[in-house]
Write the structure tokens for this entry.
Amino acid sequence: MADQDTAPADTVPTDTVPTDTAPTIEEEASTDTVSLEPRLPLNELRVFAEAFNRISSAYVEEIDDKTLLENAIKGMLSQMDPHSSYLDKDSFDDLQESTSGNYGGLGIEIGMEDGFVKVISPMDDTPAAKAGIESGDLIIQLNDTPVKGMSLSDAIEAMRGEPGSEIEITLIKTDNPTPTPLTLTREVIKVASVRHRYLEEGFGYLRIAQFQSGTGGEVEKAVIQLKDEGDLEGLIIDLRNNPGGVLQSAVAVSDVFIDGGLIVSTRGRMEDSEHRYNARTPDSIHGVPIVVLVNAGTASASEIVAGALQDHSRAIVMGTTTFGKGSVQTILPLTNEKAIKLTTARYYTPNGKSIQAAGIIPDIWVGRSKVTPAKSNPWRIKEKNLAKHLAADNESAKGESDVDDPQSPASPDPDSPDSP
């Protein structure tokens, strides 16, 4: 079991990218209000109060004070990075509900970009994945409603619904500028966090689709079962299109394969935002060679695992540069039912590299295998492509953050059906 040098008090860190599945941290958010040093710029507050009064009394339609103030909070957060947001009661309930990996929806990880919805990653075996939705696709319409102007919460709510009900989404694919309508049937999403199998004598395959609250324990069991099937001589860990999830689970998974030392650290402005997560248990497969598969859909918690194994020289990372979501979101309760999800810290790998907007650079670059026509756009969205993203904030990452994956149309694709 991995340890943490310091524990948070009444804040709950998460590492999620906004999503219609919204995986979050294992711990429950405290309902206590957070005690922060008050900072009250009186002149600006007078201007705010005057604007509030003018809008409340003069707007063409009557609007209640509660809605107006909630919109003001949403407006503040919308000008921050793309992962900070306001959580009303329904949003907060949804965030907690999804920790178990059991929810209704399409199974698609999303973010906002200039008022539109962009796909971070589809989940394995979900309606989104089965429909061929890919990282980088742009969603421009949900049913008959354009997404331009929607908040992220509005888009998530529109995509969720009763299992068996249909929704039409209109996409602009990364390789096709023509809007493409797709009709998807909502399902109760039951993401299998961990799958494994024996590939051939001596070699195991471990697929981690998402970091849920129990993923660390599932990986431990999977490794035991693989070892029981025979002498393990090599292991493939597949983190492609893994959008992240529970921070502690990423630490626990890394601890399974690392003898000791730092797994990940976080640093921010708040006193309790600085943590060091260390490995405590021995390497469960005793130095057996590992290959970690990654791509542009590998984000957040999955980048922590890839970065830790890479920095400890415990695995060869193969694929394309990862998404680059290296920030920590903390749930800060405002009342018993409302909170804000605020970016409060950045992740750093054991060697001190920031993942934020830089991603994990693979040791062996393996790109897409299918031929891309010259007129198409093979670009895939990453953290650094999101509006208002945080900078990397470390020297090592500054040198890496401008490195794009080489576009080699004939290169083999780690996403190929022939891959494990």
Notes: The CA atoms of residues 207 and 366 lie 18 Å apart. The first helix runs from residue 42 to 58. DSSP finds nine helices and 21 strands in the chain.
